[in-house]
Amino acid sequence: MKRRTLLTGALVAAATAARAEAPPAAPATVVPVLTYHRFDPHQSHSGTIVTTPVFAEQMAYLATRQVRVAPLRDILPVAHGASLPGPTVSITADDGWRTVYTDMFPIIREHKFPITLFINPPMIGRGGAYLTWPMITEMLKSGLVDVQAHTLHHPNFNTERARRDPTAYQAFVTSEIAGCRAPITEALGLPADMLAWPFGIHDATLEQAARDAGYIAAFALGSRPLANGDPAFALPRLQIYDTDHAERFAWIVAGHARTPIKKAIS
Question: Chain centroid to CA 83: how far?
Answer without folding.
Answer: 21
